[in-house]
Design brief:
single chain; Rossmann fold; 5 helices; about 25% strand; binds flavin mononucleotide
């Protein structure tokens, strides 16, 4: 298949996840293009499937991803599409956190008008060593709310790489279905 991956990141974890998806997809023999949503935009026209990934910061997905999805919603609604939400909240089973995640995602999709084939919440990372004082303070508060690590002397990666691989399998299956019809 011809796969397009578009990602929005601040500290790089979403790019890392998308690079993994790209490498796995290429190993499986697919043609993959990858695009940072803050750079020149790649149109989804002509691709069999798209994976759009964005991290959440301050309860919002990346503005550049919102712009991309809004601009191409009509095309996206006619192709296999996976939306990946990357957050710290997804790392733990705190019910209020998950309610918030569902709401942020629902609002985003409603606003942009995109109906992805499926949505996945992936746990990101918390890299205290790379944050300035202000970011460290915010990140620590989010960590506290979600029972994540508040020890700021260490970095913590929560991403489930098995889940990342399973997302690719889902996309492959969905594309195979459309080709069968
Ligand atoms: C300043 C800041 C704000 C954040 N806000 C949220 C948030 O509102 N909800 C959440 O679940 N995670 C939040 N996070 C955690 C990020 O989603 C997580 O670190 C993710 O891995 C970042 O991905 P990125 O490196 O691709 O931007 C925040 C992190 C930082 C540093």
């Amino acid at each position: 298949m011809k796969l397009l991956i578009v990602y929005g990141t601040v500290e790089g974890q979403t790019r890392k996840i998308c690079d993994r998806l790209k490498n796995e997809a290429r190993l499986n023999g697919h043609t993959v293009s990858i695009n940072n949503s803050t750079g020149p935009k790649l149109s989804p026209f002509g691709f069999d499937a798209i994976i759009i990934a964005s991290s959440i910061h301050n309860e919002k997905f990346q503005a550049s991803i919102e712009q991309y999805v809004g601009d191409y919603a009509k095309v996206l609604n006619n192709m296999v599409g996976a939306f990946i939400s990357v957050s710290l909240t997804a790392a733990h089973d705190v019910p209020e956190g998950w309610e918030e995640l569902e709401k942020i995602t629902k609002d985003f999709l409603h606003k942009t008008g995109w109906y992805p084939s499926f949505i996945e919440h992936i746990a990101g990372a918390i890299r205290y060593s790379e944050y300035n004082f202000f970011k460290k303070y915010i990140a620590r508060n989010i960590a506290k709310r979600n029972n994540a690590q508040t020890n700021t002397s260490e970095d913590h990666e929560y991403t489930d790489w098995g889940q990342v691989k399973r997302i690719l399998t889902k996309v492959e299956k969905a594309v195979a279905e459309t080709k069968r019809v």
